[in-house]
Every structure is written in structure tokens, then in C-alpha cells.
Amino acid sequence: LVQVQESGGGSVQAGGSLRLSCQASEYFHRSCMGWFRQAPGKEREGVAGIDDDGWTIYADSVKGRFTISKDNENNTLLYLDMYNLKPEDTAMYYCAYAVFCVTAGLATSLYHDWGQGTQVTVSS
């Protein structure tokens, strides 16, 4: 079981930026990490994912605005840089970890370990 902890959420106005961070308790070779979000009354949706080769995947709704990355020297530290935020980006954001993962994906079923979430609120 890998423990993950998110940080960096907050409240911003539309057009603003935020950086989310996620710290995993350990690293496994051939793993993936991802960011998901869930707005009230909606299902949890994949936002971005990254695998050990650095390959990334994004939801269409965030392409060109969000960037997922890992710390170059620390494979357990994950970031999500969010730019040009919109009110519809308002949600609880979760970090997730998947072991034995070859290619990153946005399906919740791919990931085994989840953080408690960090709230992002974008006002118009």
C-alpha cells in the first residue's frame, strides 16, 4: 500500500494559476501516478496521468492548460500545474498511484492508492 498526500489547493479567480503537489510514501519501478477530480454531484474523472517513462495523458478539458510532472530527482513527488483556471475546474482534486503500470491512463480502475484530496475553487 502506497500512501499519497496532496497539497497546494486553494481559491483563485478565473484565469489564475495553482500548483498541486503529491508526495508518495515510496516508489515502485513500473508505476504510474495520476490526478483526478470530483465536483459535487459528479463522478470522479481523470485529469492527467504520467508513467515511469515520462509519458503523459490529459483529459481534453484540460489540455493546453494543465501540466503533470514528476520531480526529476525524486520519483515520489508529483505536480500538477494548472493555468488559465476556469470555474468549471472547481472540484476536489485527488492524487493516485498505480503499481505494475506500464502506460498511464485516466481510468480510476487503473489506480490502487488514493489521497484524501485537496480542494480547488475557481471563482468567476
How are the SSEs ordered, and which strands pair?
Elements: E1 4-7, E2 10-13, E3 18-24, E4 31-38, E5 45-51, E6 56-58, E7 66-71, E8 74-82, E9 91-99, E10 113-114, E11 118-123
Parallel strand pairs: 2-11
Antiparallel strand pairs: 1-3, 3-8, 4-5, 4-9, 5-6, 7-8, 9-10, 9-11
Report on this model:
Helices cover 0% and strands 52% of the residues. A hairpin with a 4-residue loop joins strand 5 and strand 6. The chain starts with a strand and ends with a strand. The chain is built from no helices and 11 strands. The protein is mainly beta and 124 residues long. The strands form 2 sheets. Strands 2, 4, 5, 6, 9, 10 and 11 form a 7-stranded mixed beta sheet that branches. Strands 1-3-8-7 form a 4-stranded antiparallel beta sheet, with no helix packed on it.
